[in-house]
UniProtKB/TrEMBL annotation, chain A:
Coiled coil: none annotated. The lineage of its organism: Bacteria, Bacillati, Actinomycetota, Actinomycetes, Micromonosporales. It holds the Pfam family DUF1501. Residues 243-254 have a biased composition (Low complexity). It comes from the Bacteria. This is Uncharacterized protein (DUF1501 family). InterPro entries: DUF1501, TAT_signal. Residues 232-254 are annotated as: Disordered. It comes from Catenuloplanes atrovinosus. PROSITE patterns: TAT.
UniProtKB/TrEMBL annotation, chain B:
The lineage of its organism: Bacteria, Bacillati, Actinomycetota, Actinomycetes, Micromonosporales. It comes from the Bacteria. InterPro entries: DUF1800. Pfam families: DUF1800 (PF08811). This is Uncharacterized protein (DUF1800 family).
Amino acid sequence: MNTLTRRRLLIAGGITGGAALAAGATAVGLRDVLATAPARDPLAKTLVLVTLYGGNDGLNTVIPYADPAYAAARPGMTYPAEELLDLGDGLAFNPGMPGLHRLYGSGRLAVVRGVGYPRPNRSHFQSMDIWQTAQPDRPGTTGWLGRWLDTTSGDPRLAVSFEPVLPPLLAGATSAGATVPGGTLTLPKAAGPGVLTAFGTPAAGESAAQARAAACFADLMRVQDLMAQVDDGAPAGDETEPDAPATATGGDAPPLDRQLALVARCIEAGAATRVYSVSLGGFDLHADSKDTQRAQLARLDGPLAAFAERMTGRGVVIAVYSEFGRRVRANASDGTDHGTASDVFLLGDGVRGGLHGEQPSLTDLDDGDLKHTVDFRDVYATLLAGVLATDPGLALDGWTGRLDGVMT
Amino acid sequence: MADRRAISHLLRRLTFGPTAAEIDAATAAGYEATLDGLLRPAAEVRPPELDVDPYAMLDAGAAREQRQRARQEQRAQVATATRWWLARMAGGGSAEKLTFFWHGHWATSARKVRSAHLMLAQQQTFRRYGAGDTGPLIRAMLRDPALIIWLDGQRNTRKAPNENLAREVMELFTLGLGAYSEADVKAAARVLTGWQVDHRSGTARLVPQRHDDGAVTLLGRTGTFDVDSFADLLVRHEAHVPFLAGRLWARYAGTTSPVPSPVLAAGRDTTALIRAMCRAPEFAATAGTLVKQPVEWLIGAVRQLGIPVDERTGARLPAVLRTLGQVPFAPPSVGGWPEGTAWLTTSGTVARLRAGQQLAALAPAAAEGLDGAEQLATLLAVDTWTDRTYAGLRDVDDPRRLLALGLASPEYAVH
């Protein structure tokens, strides 16, 4: 099947609903496809969401070095001026981020400052739920991109993650994104299409969990068709995980470079997926944070900058966020405890680089924490409208805010 | 028949997956006698013999290569401990399942702690105190070296407290969100200052110069608290029993239905809570709704297929668990492993299909005697196949393939 046909197949999914495909993607004939489908808009964009688990310290990522309150609050955690990667306006990137600094310099990277939400929650889990569900008052069980998926055909191929466990982000009310192991998805010999189709059929009266387990088989048929087109040229996964100095707070994903290599392959192969979720854990650094965070940011910087370069011109927009930033004042072990607002990075085609949002004050604080200046739902709404070309209110409970001037 | 279903449900939830013979024996004994047997205090467990922790024994001036080699040996020791634990789980028994529950609850990872000795010592604390009143358990855990390292307790000093341990103790281990304030986190962090882990002895002790013994206001009380009086505040807090009962209910019964009130009335003794849970009519009604965690899925299969966890297979099981997304001693987060439908993914489905094939290949005897979908249900302690799964299995002639598909089926993924 060539790229164009596959794209059209997915359009068919969009128009006829999931039912036709649930019977097995192979059951949809080319004729059915052509009858329903104008080709997917070649200008359709792709969103790659990068989740940093653990609460990345925004103040030592985008460093307000010119503000005397910064050095005063964190005497053991500052960098010498010659190591800082200057952004202008008294801000600089952490020395671990040369790749992203280069992208910033070429106007492709937007730094949105002071992003947060009202009544910030300092629990990793609750706050990450809030970010992933986009529901600060009462995080529910669906993610903002899962709800977006609900507004489409619900085809799991439209939203893909490479983690073994589904991020809440991609769980919708009536559909769920796909989690894809490794690169190619070759099914074991035992599982022929007949069995998969049988196992994927709903059964009357079964529990919701069992129904979901069955639906995975139906999803698998659809996902396999898509992923079979993608070569697995990604580097092999590291089987022995390195020791980590941070308290892990979520994300048990393959290394970021591997995840991004898989995303790149899918996009280059013309996959119809519109949303990819990737993640990097290890940011919960309560002690000796400076060197570890720098190394951790370098683990983000290298793969992400390379990915962004490789994706230039393909309509890919990348967003990077974490569940919260850290307290302004360092603790005695040269680490930082859980805080509030932080930076969101947006980069890629159509992103207007530079500094956006208002820099939060380091002295006008909320019990030691930054006061947010941008609501994260404004960022999501901008991505839903600007990248996924959809009405943001549908996925964001009617939210009407936007971030002006960040997308062209 | 109804008894048999209720009893197989009980065994599926309280152990790592019953065999058909175990269900037969329990059915003959009756529900209450089976429950009593499952909740009987477990015999003392001797942890595996490991060499000394090589990293703890290094001199301060050890060279880089020495440190790297010691780290490597530490990882090998964790691998040994993991295989040992998987073999113990496969030995059956509800006590090991409870130990696994506590591990997922006080989720501590060897990826940061690194020492197999400290991870095993924490596990022994779960075995020693995990079936009784939570008071002694929480007192022991607040001075548990692995937990202290995991949550930066040893970096928590009077000069400026580190809040990591204080917050997670209240949020994740004892009270739950909403039962404490940010001020309580700060106060608890001060109370927990000064605890230092001595790697050579594998113990934690309070270093007075680093400890803040000033008065604080904590959970509505003002005064000076030490680690034990803090633990007492926690267990007496009105949120503690509902929180604990909720966690047990979520892991043993189901994640959506509310905890029945007789369970809440059982107090803070874990065995009493589990007993009340298993006697509640609501518990029986949760059959077929709880998603198996990968460890439960795998160990249950190993038991039902009669696969010995020995040198040959023991080394392969952790790799299977990694692809399924759950490795013992390495929870992805301090919040423990996900629960519910988060495990039911396309990726997980493929992993279960592959693992099912591997397990079937390791169990020629179980496959050999297998004749048809009904026998398969008995072997895997599945009450019944739905029509669609039965349709998928009906025409499969090859016993190994049948076995692999049964293990991957929707009915086997939840229990």
